Amino acid sequence: MQNILEQIGIENYIYLSVLLFCIGAFGVLYRRNAIIMFMSIEIMLNAVNLLLVAFSTYHQDAQGQVFVFFSMAVAAAEVAVGLSILVSIFRNTGSIDIDNLKNLKG
Amino acid sequence: MNTLIAISGLGVLCLLVEMFNARKAIVPITILGLLAILGYNISVYNTLGTFYNNMMLVDRFSVAFSSLFIVITTVLITMSHEFYKDRPTKISDFVAIKVFMLAGGVAMVSFGNLAMFFLGIEVLSISLYILAASNRLSLKSNEAGMKYFLMGSFASGIILFGIALIYGATGSFDLTTIYQVTHTASYPQWYIIGTIMVVIGMLFKIAAVPFHFWAPDVYEGAPALTTATMSTLAKVIAVATLYKLAIILVPGQTYAFQMIIVVVAMASMLLGNIMALRQNNVKRMLAFSGISHAGFMVMTLLISNNSANILLYYATSYAVAGLAIFAVIFYVMKDKENETIDNFNGFGKTHPLLAAVVTTSLLSMAGIPILSGFFAKFFLLSQVIQTGWIVLVIVAIISSIISVGYYFKIILAMYTKDSEQELTSIPLVYKIVAILLLVANIAIGLMPNLVLNLIS
User: Fold this and answer.
1) What is the ipTM of this complex?
2) Which one of B94, B97, B178, B294 is at 20 to 30 Å from A16 when CA atoms are compared?
3) B217-276, pLDDT tens digit by residue?
4) Domains of chain A by range and CATH?
5) B406 touches A at CB < 8 Å
């Protein structure tokens, strides 16, 4: 493991994670379909998981990999709540387009 | 440490009581449990230490703030039986979620490891997403839940990325190790980026400008009790956590960091108060008021002398005043189609006692003497002057004066306009809670040392 990391270089892992994180962030900001926004949030969180695992190998330290388990569990719980909110929106409006949600403004 | 375990156990107990068909007992059991936990939490005030390999770090800061959170949660749960009267079968869920939220909050002020911090903030946020969307037949509540969910998980992603960068730079999630590395050895530059991302994520959670845009919508759409939870409990928890994180993670009080805090504080105070002037919806107005108070509370990061005590005092006075106002709002806005200020018309004639409670609480938030809000601002600003940021103090005072404008809109509606609605009796719980909070407000205003010397 350590050998592969030395060949590729830790900075390439960081670039990849930052790229994935930005793809996720722009997905949340620009896409209007709720499911795709959820997927983008997952991409953001998984980019961080990748970074944590890479750093964990780099430091030869298991803490980072344990943290990934926490973050995966939390991400699953978060999306479960998000999807249930989406279901209740779908029951009320019959659509999952975020642009329909314009009742609150001042 | 045992505080956190006891709170989590209490949450599970709430769900079990529901299974044994004792719904009426849920609220009293939870209140008794929370009071017992509060007593225990105060009793460990002098026996401090770290637990589970530094996962939990119990110091005076965490004990004092956990006690404040437990008190706020107790008040909120006391009112929840009356508030959810029309949905009696769901009461255990609402109470249990609030108790779990409190567990998240306690984890957030007593973490010794960034893993614990992350779990705490996620437990808090996920509970709040559920509570915000809990009125599932109302489209407004759904919308509030969805917006809060999207913004909240976006902020969580940013915080998580910041934690990953901090881990990469220092090789540990442990706060003492991070502190040692950043204060003695050299560390990669991206550590600063990680710290800034964590701070940005926390500014999202406390709704400080420029990360405030979700707050008015979410506060307006969510059920009133959830709005009260968000604007008092969640805000106080997030501010305390931001304070603890910034003290440990930011290496030295650099000018750049102070500049960020000054800009955020000034923008929050001015924009919050000016936007609040235009609002006609009470919950939306209190959201903007909360944004401006977040600006005030962020200022404690600038001062070095006695800052934790001042933050605790400010947070207590803000929470006490906010809860008293919300206790009356629950009654006034019940079964109303809109939540405009007109609903307060004539309230001073029909319910003089509660109108007085609202008036004094609003004046406390605006910062009128002998009420605790004045002393909170006084202690805070007199310390900020000593740091040399005179501009910040001037902006703070100007924005306080602006805030009197919109607080008086409600007061004028109560005393000068006539009511069109028939007289209904106010539920006893709201009355007792509102009056007790008013007494607490005046007491900590007259005797600031009750709160001000807790963290030395």
Assistant:
1) 0.95
2) B178
3) 999 999 999 999 999 999 999 999 999 999 888 877 788 889 999 999 999 999 999 999
4) 2-95 (1.10.287.3510)
5) no
